[in-house]
Amino acid sequence: MIEHKNIVVTGASSGIGKAILEELLKQEGNRILAAARRADRITGYGENVIPFSCDLSTQEGVDALFEKAEQVFDKIDLYFCNAGAPYYEQFDYEDWQRIQNIFNVNTVAHIYTYSKYLHHLNGRDGRLIYTISAMGEMALPGYALYAATKFAMKGFQQAIRDEAPKNLKITCVYPVSTRTNFFNVGTGGRDLKPPFPVQAPEGVARAVVEGVAKLKKHIYPCKVYRPSQLLMKAVPPVKALYVQAQKGKLHRFVKKLKAEGEELKKEIKLKKTLR
Fold first, then answer.
1. All domains of the chain in start order, with CATH
2. Would the pLDDT of 273 be above 60?
């Protein structure tokens, strides 16, 4: 059980973060600083939940969150580093800032948070929980940059475990596709069927909270994920077929975008003609 803890949850206004927040509230005495870009969406949870708006893709945003946490808590017992952002796209462009943006929120902020939390604890016990994603172990077409940010976090946690002092423990979570607005955000609001298998955020949250309570180092919320990885390793054609299906999905998505672009050009040309 996780009870009577001071907890920070980032990305708490929707998806997995919101589900983790609600799961933690089922247990007694937890106080939660719930951070998100739109903290106005975090309502109706009572006095034990403190909404806080910040942009966690920036140093200023992470610093502000820790400053707020130290105002309301003597110590942060658990820090759920869950905030993140997706892209679904064909990576064939030159846009330095777009690349930087996804790394800032998915990777740089989480690495920076480790150091902030380490210094905050100052020798006291604490646990940092990273939501990494199954995409941090197996990249798929359409998710090149997203997967790159998650592979970076996989490498960081692997190295930092051997550096971290004994008082700071790290748990990493590897959810598969989850039924949230993640895929709508990643495609600019376009409908996209997520990669199989798919979980509900509530199921992920239950597995995460249970795993953290048991002091697990790694949590795989989807029961079929690890067996499927073993199957793909033992029978490579299975993986090849799965990846080929994802390539086909990306091809259809890119084709649809091009068609939308042509339609927009026609509309603009028609408007100019009618003037």
1. 6-225 (3.40.50.720)
2. no
